[in-house]
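quick q for whoever's on today - can somebody do inverse folding on this one?? i tried earlier but teh output was garbage lol. tokens:
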């Protein structure tokens, strides 16, 4: 049975999503929890990667549960959360179609960036917002954001050259001023022949509302 997970985490203690040497990562923690629950190694596939210190509110991943286990998604949800640290939580677990893939079935991604313009950064925002203790000019912000809005071809920035898909990515980038911070929300969507079962994932960098 293929299971789709929706994951939230505080990225500050971790070296990002993907397993890597000499780093504590989200993927490694979840795969360790899967092994402890299933009694055998299981591979998890994420919809994307986040860097060190980046948070997520709804990152999608999937894994294939062993056939011999009779656990339903509700059981998996509870069992995994008992094995994970408080900084990582499985928010939802549901059965997916056999051909669902967290990466290739994703239809879009959303990123949030929070800047604090307060003269002194409140302790509750430490590590969650970029402290920029000066007022920002709305007109200048709009001018800068104009470079990001619209449809762009990002294949030149792909890490795995040669595996790029021939598509362009429409992007919106909208500021949402609020005191004492300014929130920037970037939504990226792309056409895909895959099912819309996955709504992608939402990562916040460096802010996590």
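ok took a stab at it. sequence:
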């Amino acid at each position: 049975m293929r299971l789709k997970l929706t994951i939230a985490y505080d990225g500050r203690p971790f070296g990002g999503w993907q397993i890597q040497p000499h780093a504590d990562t989200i993927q490694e923690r979840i795969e360790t929890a899967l092994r402890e629950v299933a009694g055998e190694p299981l591979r998890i596939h994420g919809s994307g990667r986040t860097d060190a210190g980046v948070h997520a509110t709804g990152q999608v991943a999937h894994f294939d549960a062993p056939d011999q286990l009779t656990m339903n998604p509700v059981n998996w949800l509870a069992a995994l959360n008992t094995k994970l640290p408080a900084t990582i939580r499985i928010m939802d677990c549901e059965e997916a179609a056999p051909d669902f893939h967290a990466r290739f079935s994703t239809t879009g991604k959303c990123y949030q960036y929070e800047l604090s313009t307060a003269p002194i950064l409140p302790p509750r925002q430490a590590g969650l917002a970029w402290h920029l203790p000066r007022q920002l000019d709305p007109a200048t912000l709009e001018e800068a954001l104009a470079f990001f809005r619209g449809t762009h071809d990002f294949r030149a920035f792909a890490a795995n050259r040669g595996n790029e898909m021939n598509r362009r990515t429409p992007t919106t980038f909208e500021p949402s001023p609020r005191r004492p911070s300014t929130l920037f929300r970037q939504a990226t969507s792309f056409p895909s022949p895959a099912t819309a079962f996955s709504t992608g994932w939402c990562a916040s960098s460096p802010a996590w509302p």
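fwiw The helical segments are 26-38, 73-83, 138-145. also Residues 11 and 54 are 5 Å apart (CA to CA). so keep that in mind when u check it
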